[in-house]
Write a structure and sequence with these properties.
This protein is α+β, with helices and mostly antiparallel strands. The protein contains 9 helices and 26 strands. Strands 1-26-25-24 form a 4-stranded antiparallel beta sheet, with no helix packed on it. A hairpin with a 5-residue loop joins strand 18 and strand 19.
Length: 583
């Protein structure tokens, strides 16, 4: 549980190569042996553990290989020392009002691996720690963003950011991406069940644990001692403290060998892998109105015009705004009949609106410069009307709100304005968090990646990507006469090397971009799609990541899919030349 440091989630070390400049994830030699606990990774150190186990003579304490555990509260604090509230907890743990000695702080991935696996020059018998989930999704814990004074090591090196392996190229985001890719690799997929057997399965206790060299101090195991049965309060507190510091082995979940993962499915023709072979097929025969939203649910395709958003998984309703009376209405999608009508939503015209994934939270922006957060309360009966409850009005902009985006996964709202500002708001307390700066044009579109938290912002011809903490990752001007009129991001796994960001333009062109690490993070043009004759106003990638729908100002809707015969309309060679021209 994330709420209990003594029972924090455990993840395995998956790599054993922290010295190479490049990492080949098809080479089994770069991976850790997942069939062995950390104490058994080095045969020489393991021999010493076995000797201690066989020569154990204390009749009150059962024999064990390892006197320390692979996950205790101190290990969690060791890894997360650069982030609050773990920073304060680290200081409190020392009891001196200061951090631990600099040589004992988390400083280097390579040194930490060598210490835990016993493969370093200074072999330790007390270190067998595993990893925590943050190693696979959170680059921030590797950076000393708060400029903490972590001291100077005996070698004279000042402890700042965590020293990364050479293959990470000095970038925490690249380390996390490659590390996550290693976790999802074919090798780890084929062998992870062996680690599960050690941590949660049949090799956790008993004869199998002894044979697997996987026996820890007895107090770490569930049911080893009944704390409530200890009458002496001093002894009880001492036992609890001992358990706290020795760690807790997870509850055994499997008493039989865990099954290996099956073979991978053949790769699908996902868009990001086939930007050079995308072919368009018309979807609607009689285009009639500008397309501003394309909605996919349960295999059904729906689309709406300006100032409308479809509601519900079945798109049975839509919400509309921008009327002369400044109202907000919920209408039946089949009949067009108004089912709910809301006045005084803003002091003036509603200029932007978005809905969260579950359609319970609605964010509106108005010409009055205000961002409003609403909750759409469910109907009590089929005949009753839904109600709109105001949660908070947020003020930071000075001109009309042009776009809003919601992320329930990260509990944020991002708003853009005519005043060239973009603001991140928190949904937990409904308050201002920070502002993204440096825009030369009014903000036209913004979107939040629900997996990584990255924020994509469009302003005129400028495309930029930011972290959820407001750090600029990459920025690019897409060129003259190519004003961005629509935006879509691929909702695939966050470790993808070349996940897609799609922009539609007033020229009718669709550009396919990827965020690629080349010394620094850069937006690279992967391909262009040229079938629309009018401004592209809506883009939508389906959940399989194999289909792209696009709509334009004239009402044309196209379906883009990968083909094998080369009859495509995307231009990879031209994209490369255009990328050079842009740069």
């Amino acid at each position: 549980s994330y709420n209990d440091l003594t029972q924090y989630p455990i993840f395995p070390w998956v790599l054993a190569d922290y010295t190479s400049a490049e990492l080949d994830l098809t080479d089994p030699k770069v991976f850790r042996d997942l069939s062995k606990p950390m104490g058994a990774q080095n045969p020489d150190r393991l021999a010493e553990f076995i000797k201690r186990y066989r020569e154990w003579e204390d009749e009150t304490v059962p024999a064990f290989y390892y006197g320390t555990h692979y996950m205790v509260a101190g290990i969690v604090l060791y890894y997360l020392i650069r982030l609050e509230p773990f920073t304060s907890s680290n200081i409190a743990l020392q009891g001196t009002g200061r951090f631990d000695h600099s040589d004992r702080l988390f400083h280097s991935i390579k040194e930490t691996w060598e210490s835990a696996s016993g493969n370093g020059s200074n072999r330790q018998m007390s270190d067998v720690k595993e990893l925590i989930p943050e190693f696979f999704y959170l680059p921030d814990f590797l950076v000393n963003r708060n400029n903490l004074d972590l001291g100077r090591r005996q070698t004279g090196i000042v402890v700042q950011d965590v020293v990364l392996p050479p293959w990470a190229k000095g970038d925490p985001r690249e380390f996390i991406r490659i590390h996550r890719m290693a976790l999802e690799s074919e090798y780890v997929t084929a062998h992870l069940h062996e680690w599960i057997d050690l941590m949660f399965g049949y090799k956790q206790i008993g004869k199998e644990a002894v044979q697997a060299h996987n026996v820890f101090y007895y107090l770490t195991y569930e049911g080893a001692i009944d704390v409530d049965a200890i009458a002496d309060p001093v002894e009880r507190e001492a036992t609890i403290a001992q358990i706290y510091h020795f760690g807790q082995t997870p509850q055994q979940l499997f008493k039989k060998p865990h099954g290996a993962c099956g073979p991978s499915l053949p790769p699908a023709k996902v868009l990001r892998m086939h930007c050079d072979v995308l072919q368009a097929t018309p979807v609607n025969d009689k285009p009639d109105a500008e397309v501003h939203q394309i909605h996919l649910a349960n295999g059904k395709l729906s689309y709406t015009g300006p100032s409308k958003l479809l509601l519900g998984p079945d798109a049975s309703q839509y919400i509309t705004w921008g009327t002369p009376d400044f109202s907000l209405r919920i209408c039946n999608n089949e009949t067009g009949k108004t089912e709910a009508y809301f006045e005084n939503v803003h002091d003036g015209k509603i200029s932007a609106l978005n809905i969260c994934e579950h359609n319970r939270l609605i964010v509106t922006g108005g010409a009055d410069t205000v961002v409003s957060i609403w909750e759409l309360e469910r109907r009590k009966s089929k005949t009753s009307s839904p109600k709109l409850k105001l949660l908070r009005r947020l003020c930071a902009h000075t001109q009309r709100i042009t776009c809003v985006a919601i992320s329930r996964a990260f509990n944020i709202v991002v708003s853009g304005s005519q005043d060239k500002t973009c603001v991140i708001w928190g949904l937990n307390r409904f308050e201002y968090i920070r502002q993204l700066t440096g825009f030369e044009h009014p903000i036209s579109h913004t979107c939040v990646n629900y997996r990584s938290g990255d924020i994509v912002v469009c302003a005129g011809t400028q495309l930029s990507v930011w972290t959820v903490n407001g750090d600029l990752i990459a920025k690019l001007d897409v060129g003259l006469h190519k004003t961005i009129t629509s935006l879509e991001i691929e909702k695939g796994p966050e470790w993808l090397k070349e996940g897609l960001i799609l922009t539609g333009h007033d020229t009718g062109r669709i550009c396919c971009w990827s965020l690629v690490f080349q010394v620094t993070w850069q937006l690279v043009l992967r391909g262009t799609l040229n079938m629309h004759q009018n401004a592209v106003t809506s883009l939508c990638i389906d959940h399989t990541l194999c289909k792209l729908y696009s709509g334009d100002k004239s009402g044309v809707v196209l379906l883009w899919t990968a083909v094998d015969d080369g009859k495509n309309v995307s231009k990879p060679a031209a994209a490369a030349e255009e990328q050079k021209a842009i740069l």
